[in-house]
Amino acid sequence: MTQTDRPVALVTGGGSGIGAAIARTLSKDYLVVVCGRRIEPLEIVAHETDGVALQADLSQPEASAAIVHRTIDRFGRLDALVLNAGIVEPAPVTDLPLDSWQRQIMVNLTSPFLTAQAALPCLAQQKGAIVGIASAAARHTGAGLSAYGVSKAGMVRLMQSIAFEMAETGVRANAVSPGWVRTEMGDMEMTALCGSPDQGYAQATQHVPQRRAAQPDEIAAVVRFLLSPAASFMTGANVEVDGGSSLVDAGMLAFNGD
Ligand code: NAD
């Protein structure tokens, strides 16, 4: 074991997009362990952040606890957990194959549950904190997003359940629900919807008050805050980081001057 005086953070899906931005931001405060499917991008982020890369396929039930145990075995502590890994496989309810439903629920919800469950005893020792990356899809639905939306609504409630049950130990748990963010996943969805990411983001954000998608750093900054002592009285919150889109009432769009 390499004992460290630095607090340790574990970020799932830390090799790309929002997770990589979170790892870079958290490396100012923590020794960061990034985990995900592909080792090459993880190693790039680990190198940039002076952290550690762990390859794991979180669609496999045993992998979630294993990444926690590998982190604790190596460093003897865990102070922060960011449950960020996620997938989306859009399909209408009428055509959604069972294996796709199960894969999205597994990676987006069951794995966060198993990872948190394994981490909580150590987080309680450190009075640590968890952030679960949910989505605007936790609150609003859209075509083809049943499994994704259910998994993200579940993520919000999972964070609230942990917040409630663990409050007296000092562990805090909060969710962050981004609107559109410019990442590999966002680009893929925009290309599927509109043929090109730029056109897609412009169309997707035309009714968003800020009229744009977020950059991954804008999500990472909120995660860093929620994990920090500055957020010591925040637990069980779902912070919507969405350029104001949750303010928009579909029934008022016709009168908004858009
Ligand atoms: P991304 O595709 O760049 O990142 C997803 C990460 O999850 C990748 O690093 C990937 O390796 C990891 N991952 C996926 N399946 C995995 C598995 N089986 N095992 C281990 N790791 C796995 O996309 P992103 O946009 O950065 O998404 C990060 C999170 O933010 C996701 O949970 C996503 O649902 C959420 N989110 C994204 C947006 C957006 O517009 N991009 C909006 C709201 C929420």
From TrEMBL:
Protein source organism: Gemmobacter lutimaris
Origin organism lineage: Bacteria, Pseudomonadati, Pseudomonadota, Alphaproteobacteria, Rhodobacterales
Family: Belongs to the short-chain dehydrogenases/reductases (SDR) family.
InterPro entries according to UniProt: KR_dom, NAD(P)-bd_dom_sf, Sc_DH/Rdtase_CS, SDR_fam
SMART domains linked to this entry: PKS_KR
Pfam family, one: adh_short_C2
Domain Ketoreductase, residue spans: 7-183
Molecular function terms from GO: oxidoreductase activity, acting on the CH-OH group of donors, NAD or NADP as acceptor
Name of the protein: SDR family oxidoreductase
Family matches, as SUPFAM superfamilies: NAD(P)-binding Rossmann-fold domains
GO BP terms in the entry: fatty acid elongation
Gene3D superfamilies the record matches: NAD(P)-binding Rossmann-like Domain
